[in-house]
Write a structure and sequence with these properties.
By secondary structure, the protein is an all-alpha fold. Helix content is 81%, strand content 0%. It has one domain (3-188). InterPro entries: Mntp/YtaF (IPR003810), Put_MntP (IPR022929).
Length: 189
């Protein structure tokens, strides 16, 4: 593992965690009385699913990589650019409405965890296409998501909902930049 790979995985974890961060901010806004143990459960679910989905995507990518090895870097770039673009669009939306929900209900918690982890599935798929190792990036993604989710709930108690939209824009930009890096490495290096 090179320092460049480590930095890339950390930035990937940060980029992927912005959806979870935004959800956590919403949880903090809606449940300002949230206790540390409750926050840890919510963050744990979000981090677990965020770490699980790249593994699922990686297995799928490993199965089909030989079929698409000549253009896999374009697929990885396309997936990351699409996800990043989607996050930026969500961040730009000005609706800012928060519905009253209970993030401690298992059904809600699993739904939020899956919804915030779909992009991680695509990243795992990219890893499978590119024949990249999965365990270290998954550990980083899970850890970063847990920390970001805990911070999000803390911030949600203390900041306005407008900032959660800005975090989606930043996360989307990071994912697009990683996609460009992957494309550049395969085309020119």
């Amino acid at each position: 593992m090179t320092i460049t790979q480590l930095i890339t995985f950390v930035f990937l974890g940060i980029g992927l965690s912005f959806d979870s961060f935004a959800v956590s901010v919403s949880c903090g806004l809606m449940r300002r009385e949230i206790k540390f143990g409750q926050a840890a459960i919510v963050a744990g679910f979000l981090a677990f699913f965020q770490a699980l989905f790249p593994v699922l995507g990686w297995f799928i990518g490993e199965i089909v990589k030989d079929l698409i090895s000549s253009f896999d870097h374009w697929i990885a770039f396309g997936l990351l650019a699409f996800i990043g673009g989607k996050m930026i669009v969500e961040g730009v939306k000005k609706d800012g409405s928060l519905t009253n929900f209970n993030p401690f209900r298992l059904r809600v918690l699993i739904g939020l965890s899956i919804a915030t982890s779909i992009d991680a599935l695509a990243v795992g798929l990219s890893f499978g296409f590119l024949d990249m190792p999965i365990l270290f990036p998954v550990a980083i993604i899970g850890f970063v998501t847990f920390v970001a989710s805990m911070l999000g709930m803390l911030f949600g108690k203390n900041i306005s909902a407008k900032r959660s939209h800005q975090s989606l824009i930043l996360g989307g930009t990071i994912l697009i930049a990683i996609g460009i890096k992957i494309l550049a490495e395969h085309l020119w290096f």
